[in-house]
């Protein structure tokens, strides 16, 4: 027998022995779930997410319905559908950490999203919080209002020409222009482009298209993520021609980044870059290299644009498909804002109880990150339902499943804003997992929840066009002609 045959035979025997161990002798062998996943996490994930086009989450849901709150979805991975367990592993000061193997395909190491070291993440979060706080977002109210008017102007142009509009692309362009202003100090101008696209958004979309492959084979996704960071670096150089990386390994200096933070035409700056490049921003903060800065900006642009645009798109979808909800919301808006010239601010919009309920229900069912987000069992292990889990085991939870848990939500799959008007609404609010919990809670929560996506753009579009099914047919990419409300729509 040739050496190649020996090697092949040894490889097959090794694989079989490992598969037997994983199935019957592994510490997680007691848990029900997919036998294929217990042998090979990567190929099982690839099969459901790539071959079956992203249906892994629904297969996980089916396994929970069949086996209960704990299932095995990988060699070293469990998925849990239990709010108490979720709150325990995500609470403040938890010893559970993000799984670096998983997060390398959706983020960059060391960024506010990708950092797995709790102490380092705490410092980075403190640095960025002022730039993304509710107060900072409120300061951008004039910009958000201007972008909303610009967006509706594009809708008017499409209506006048009788051409369809892709609401998905329009929403993503709208939020990208706003978040780029926050992060880069200069908007990308996506709303001015005929197809609502930009070079950066194209690269981000290309990265997302590898999403089904990334969890199974992270190295493939890493290439796409690198292209996004490379694009961000190009924008940094474009906004500040004097700023070059030159392969430097040390931290950038204020002088090197001065072109990025000086006037963009109106004396405006990037609060994000300013905070990151301030060595005194927070105790323990060290200045990032230009590459690290580019990575962080890419993550903030991606997360800020995609999450808030998904909220808008989901809100349109659900309201359009429920006539009674559409009419109730429109009546409330027309009463609060009797003319299109009435100023819509976060302060007066937040007083509209039904609008608030629609926003919360949209975030419950239309969350931007429905998939699993694993946390690694710490060195001391973890007791799950009376059984000890060894260090290194990954416990996965999913907002999609928890936000539809039948033990918490009545008629969980129904879009019902009235649930947020009941006496137990405050209790339900504590069960909402859309933004995460604890120290790793979404840094941009205020950006998504406040005026950027819900309390300015949506009411203004609702009042102007009504968002009736005649306005757009919410199918596929949401392409259909649109029309403003008739002239007698207002009293």
TrEMBL record:
Species of origin: Sodiomyces alkalinus (strain CBS 110278 / VKM F-3762 / F11)
Organism classification: Eukaryota, Fungi, Dikarya, Ascomycota, Pezizomycotina
Annotated GO MF terms: heme binding; iron ion binding; monooxygenase activity; oxidoreductase activity, acting on paired donors, with incorporation or reduction of molecular oxygen
InterPro entries from the UniProt entry: Cyt_P450, Cyt_P450_CS, Cyt_P450_E_grp-I, Cyt_P450_sf, Cytochrome_P450_monoxygenase
Record-linked PANTHER family: CYTOCHROME P450 (PTHR24305), CYTOCHROME P450 MONOOXYGENASE APDB-RELATED (PTHR24305:SF235)
The entry's keywords: Heme, Iron, Metal-binding, Monooxygenase, Oxidoreductase
CDD domains: CYP58-like
Family designation: Belongs to the cytochrome P450 family.
Name recorded for this polypeptide: Cytochrome P450
């Amino acid at each position: 027998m040739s050496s190649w045959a020996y090697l092949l035979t040894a490889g097959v025997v090794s694989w079989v022995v490992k598969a037997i161990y994983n199935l019957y002798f592994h510490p997680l062998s007691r848990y029900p779930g997919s036998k294929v996943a217990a042998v090979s996490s990567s190929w099982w994930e690839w099969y459901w997410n790539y071959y079956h086009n992203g249906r892994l989450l629904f297969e996980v849901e089916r396994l929970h319905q069949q086996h209960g709150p704990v299932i095995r979805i990988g060699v070293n991975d469990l998925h849990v559908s239990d709010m108490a367990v979720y709150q325990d592993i995500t609470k403040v000061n938890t010893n559970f950490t993000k799984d670096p193997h998983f997060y390398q395909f959706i983020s960059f190491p060391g960024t506010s999203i990708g950092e797995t070291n709790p102490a380092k993440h705490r410092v980075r979060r403190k640095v960025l919080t002022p730039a993304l706080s509710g107060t900072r977002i409120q300061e951008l109210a004039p910009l958000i209002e201007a972008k909303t008017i610009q967006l509706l102007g594009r809708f008017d142009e499409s209506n006048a020409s009788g051409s369809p509009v892709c609401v998905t692309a329009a929403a993503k362009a709208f939020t990208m222009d706003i978040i780029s202003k926050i992060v880069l100090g200069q908007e990308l101008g996506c709303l001015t482009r005929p197809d609502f696209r930009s070079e950066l958004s194209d690269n981000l979309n290309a990265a997302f298209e590898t999403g089904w492959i990334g969890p199974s084979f992270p190295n493939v996704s890493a290439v796409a993520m690198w292209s996004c960071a490379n694009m961000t670096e190009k924008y940094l150089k474009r906004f500040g021609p004097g700023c070059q990386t030159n392969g430097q390994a040390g931290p950038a200096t204020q002088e090197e980044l001065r072109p990025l933070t000086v006037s963009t035409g109106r004396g405006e700056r990037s609060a994000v870059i300013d905070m990151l490049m301030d060595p005194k921003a927070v105790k323990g903060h060290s200045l990032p290299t230009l590459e690290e800065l580019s990575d962080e900006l890419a993550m903030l642009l991606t997360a800020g644009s995609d999450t808030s645009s998904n909220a808008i798109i989901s809100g349109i979808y659900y309201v359009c498909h429920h006539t009674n909800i559409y009419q109730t919301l429109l009546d409330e808006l027309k009463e609060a804002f009797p003319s299109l010239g009435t100023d819509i601010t976060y302060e007066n919009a937040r007083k509209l109880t039904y609008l608030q309920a629609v926003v919360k229900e949209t975030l419950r069912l239309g969350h931007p990150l429905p998939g699993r987000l694993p946390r690694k069992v710490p060195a001391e292990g973890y007791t799950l339902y009376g059984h000890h889990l060894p260090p290194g085991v990954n416990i996965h939870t999913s907002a999609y499943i928890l936000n539809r848990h039948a033990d918490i939500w009545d008629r969980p799959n129904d879009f019902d804003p009235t649930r947020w008007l009941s006496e137990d609404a405050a209790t339900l609010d504590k069960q909402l997992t859309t933004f995460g919990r604890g120290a790793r809670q979404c840094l941009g929560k205020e950006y998504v929840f406040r005026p950027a996506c819900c309390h300015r753009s949506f009411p203004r579009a609702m009042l102007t066009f009504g968002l009736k099914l005649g306005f757009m047919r919410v199918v596929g990419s949401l392409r259909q002609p649109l029309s403003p409300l008739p002239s007698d729509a207002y009293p």
